[in-house]
Write a structure and sequence with these properties.
Blueprint lengths: L5 H35 L6 H6 L1 H8 L3 H8 L5 H43 L23 H14 L10 H4 L11 H30 L20 H13 L5 H6 L9
Helix pairs in contact: 1-5, 1-9, 5-8, 8-9
Length: 265
């Protein structure tokens, strides 16, 4: 049986795109706190100290309108303050664009995983390629009871798990690429990482919703009464931290999907 590994190779490319998206989004997020302060007129924490310290004494000894304006602007040049609102908007739009890419990459990868499953499976009755249900929809709300009921229904109807359609000889076949994993190892690795990516998409969607002050994609970031949560520097910094951390993504597993995982074994 000839196995088409093209979907697996394309999955690697999708993970590389995710990595680039993550880095680019973080670049924008790291700019936003200072731009927010400048645009909203919030002073630098050190500004008042400077005003009451050596800089303040200099201002009192040799008054300078330009120096005074610089201090009152939170140690920012007037041109920086003037440009801040537009730059803040650009940075937020940059984050929104990367969050949209995250959703696109997830769906692309989910489709590729379905193709990979189909490429290694054989229908037990017809001997042809097995048909698989599409990947789980993003932001689904199914609870554990519903999942159990679906599993019971599958068992009662005689439907099998998708892995049952993959011949044992195929599962044990080793992919001559990267870490020399078996097909079975690649299948479960891809499934695990895609589940984590799905959760990370929700995180990025929530960040985008907060920064844009409106629901983003399928998310629900506004309060129950429909009022957007006000932007605050601390929360903006928190958005950057959670974006950078990627709390749901196992970095070792994720990196193992790039270059076949050869450098991560």
């Amino acid at each position: 049986m000839e196995i088409n590994l093209e979907p697996l190779l394309k999955l690697e490319q999708a993970m590389k795109k995710w990595k680039i998206m993550h880095i680019e989004g973080l670049k924008h997020l790291r700019l936003i706190p200072d731009l927010f302060d400048a645009a909203s007129g919030t002073k630098d924490e050190d500004a008042s100290e400077h005003q009451n310290g050596v800089l303040g004494r200099v201002m009192n000894t040799a008054p300078s309108p330009r120096l005074r304006e610089f201090v009152l602007n939170g140690l920012r040049h007037p041109s920086e303050v003037e440009a801040a609102p537009e730059k803040l908007t650009d940075a937020i739009e940059g984050v929104l664009a990367e969050a949209a890419k995250a959703i696109h990459i997830y769906f692309e990868a989910a489709d590729l995983l379905d193709e990979f499953k189909a490429a290694v499976a054989v229908d037990a009755a017809e001997g042809g390629a097995a048909a698989f249900a599409p990947a789980d929809a993003l932001f689904r709300d199914a609870d554990a009871d519903a999942d159990d009921a679906d599993a019971d229904a599958d068992a009662a109807s005689g439907r099998r798990h998708w892995i049952d359609d993959v011949p044992g000889s195929v599962l044990l076949a080793r992919v001559p690429w990267g870490a020399n994993r078996t097909i079975e190892e690649w299948l479960w690795l891809c499934v695990a990482v895609l589940e984590q990516i799905e959760s990370e998409v929700e995180v990025k969607e929530a960040v985008a919703s907060y920064l844009s002050q409106q629901p983003f994609a399928g998310g629900d970031s506004l309060e129950d009464e429909g009022v957007a949560e006000a932007l605050e520097r601390g929360k903006i910094e928190g958005c950057a931290e959670v974006w950078e951390l990627e709390p749901y993504l196992d970095n070792k597993l994720f990196e193992s999907m790039i270059d076949g995982g050869a450098s991560h074994e």
